[in-house]
Amino acid sequence: MIAILAEIARRCGIPILLACTALPLSGCMGGAIAQQLASSMLMQGADNIMHNAYEAQQREALNKRVLKDSSPDEYWISFVSSGFQPISPSEEPLPAEMVPAEQAEAEVSPFVRVEVWNLLIGDEKMSVLEQAYTRGEAELPPKNEWAGLRVATGGLEGGQGQAIIFLVPPEIGRLNSGQLAIVELGNDGQPNIARYLAR
User: Fold this and answer.
1) Closest to 37 in 3D by CA, of 15, 62, 64, 66
2) For residue 153, what pLDDT is reported?
3) What's the pLDDT at 17?
4) What 8-state DSSP symbol labels residue 52?
5) How many domains would you assign to the chain?
6) Closest-CA residue to 1 (of 41, 32, 30)
7) What is the largest CA-CA distance in the chain?
């Protein structure tokens, strides 16, 4: 029994002294502890032996493996042997007489459909109105009527572009977030002005 415990202890890395002290304890009060200790050492030793045997079997199978001798895949050959072919530029003669292209000015409607995001209030609203006032906007009411004037921000319908800030005249009424309005885009620094509610 001591020889078996010594062999298991040697393979498991457990000191022989611990294995030898477990056997005498089996006769005294700590017999159950000694039996558990011996059982645990036996199981650990058996696990290590099985693990080493399995790894040895796997190494042997890997070393004895026979590689299949087959011709290379045609796609692999074409990939490995592919290269860049030189391309020579083709020269075309210029036309005898250059004809200038007619530059037709595209007519762009100043009215766009804008989805309302929110209304500006307080200092933001006053800042926009002051800027419009300093540029001399003709449609801007006098300063004492600015309290009834609304300023809104929005974006082009269906677009994810830049925000558009526009004035909302009192006759249009209050705009809610998500509503569509027809806005006349101002040119030369003039403010954009909502003209109608979109249906």
Assistant:
1) 15
2) 85
3) 46
4) H
5) 2
6) 41
7) 119
Q: How far is C-alpha 85 from the chain's CA centre?
A: 38
Place of tokens 């979109």: 198
Please write the tens of the pLDDT for every residue from 21-76. 555 555 555 678 888 888 899 999 999 999 999 999 999 998 888 877 777 788 88
What tokens were used for 85?
């072919």
Task: Say if pTM beats, i.e. exceeds, 0.85.
Answer: no
- Residue written as tokens 């558990």? 36
Q: Residue 101 burial (CB < 10 Å; 0-12/13-18/19+)?
A: exposed
H-only helix segments in the chain: 2-12, 16-25, 31-63, 74-80, 122-134
Q: How many CA atoms lie within 13 A of 102 on its CB side?
A: 3
Structural domain includes residue 10: yes
Enclosing domain of residue 7: 2-63
Contact 111, 182 (CB under 8 A): yes
Identify whether residues 185 and 118 lie together within a single domain: yes
The residue among 109, 111, 107 whose CA lies nearest residue 193 is: 111
